[in-house]
Amino acid sequence: MELTEVVTSRRSVRAYKKDTTVEQSTIEEIIRFAQEAPSWKNSQTGRYYVAISPEKVAAVKEKSLPEFNQKSCADAPVLIVTTFVKNRAGFDREGNADNELGNEWGAYDLGLQNELLTLKATELGLDTLIMGIRDGEALRAEFDIPDTEEVVAVIALGYRDNEPEKPKRKDVEAIVKFF
Ligand SMILES: Cc1cc2nc3c(=O)[nH]c(=O)nc-3n(C[C@H](O)[C@H](O)[C@H](O)COP(=O)(O)O)c2cc1C
Predict the structure, then answer these.
(1) From 131, 154, 160, mutation site for ligand 1 pocket: most ligand atoms within 8 A of C-beta
(2) Cα(89)–Cα(110) distance, rounded to whole angstroms?
(3) What residue owns the CA closest to ligand 1's atom 7?
(4) Which residue CA neighbors atom 29 of ligand 1 most closely?
């Protein structure tokens, strides 16, 4: 698939085919690709906690997702919890923030990585749903995520069971100012 085709065919999918699985090697391939993203001083602070056993997937859904997100990923076979190591991206070696954004740079880098993750999944015929509405502390407990990491999104991975509409995008004129 060409880049443009991958980007335009990716959708947030909220209905997944039942009784499917995704090989661990495929998930590794997707995350390896995501690692190609640029990052602050190449700090590569993104981390992944992947629920693949049906028991763990069910636990993540029940304990950390609101009902509407549970429904959206009800039959997704994989849930990927993404975090970043704090106080590195956006910080100097002494631990001082390089500018006013501080740890927001860690979230920025993780977003770059996760976009590649979703695009690679699309290229491989898989679908995703990034979920930012989740209980971070429940996820921390479920995966024993250390306090040195910020819990960010849960990404459902699986095979679409419907054809979602593309939500409208703003016109370029509405978001750009040239000087
Ligand atoms: C950071 C982030 C958090 C999101 N959180 C949720 C969520 O909790 N639940 C949900 O259904 N969709 C969530 N979405 C999906 C967006 O609603 C979706 O990307 C947007 O409507 C555009 O649709 P598209 O992804 O199909 O292009 C999230 C997307 C992003 C990037």
Answers:
(1) 131
(2) 10
(3) 131
(4) 130
Going by alpha carbons, the residue nearest to atom 9 of ligand 1 is 131
Q: Which residues pair with 151 in a beta bridge?
A: 83
- In eight-state DSSP terms, residue 99 is S
Gap from CA of 45 to ligand 1 centroid (Å): 22
The 10s digit of each residue's pLDDT in 9-37 is: 999 999 999 999 999 999 999 999 999 99
Rounded to an integer, what distance in angstroms lies between the CA atom of residue 30 and that of residue 97?
Answer: 31
In the chain, domain spans: 3-163
* pTM strictly above 0.90: yes
d(C-alpha 69, C-alpha 14), whole Å: 8
Report the pocket of ligand 1 as residue ranges, CB < 6 Å.
11-12, 14, 69, 72, 129-133, 153, 167
Instruction: Choose the CATH number for 3-163 among 3.90.1440.10, 1.10.3210.10, 3.40.109.10, 3.30.450.20.
Output: 3.40.109.10
Q: For residue range 96-151, what is the model confidence (pLDDT) as tens digits?
A: 999 999 999 999 999 999 999 999 999 999 999 999 999 999 999 999 999 999 99
CA-proximal residue: ligand 1, atom 22 (nearest): 167
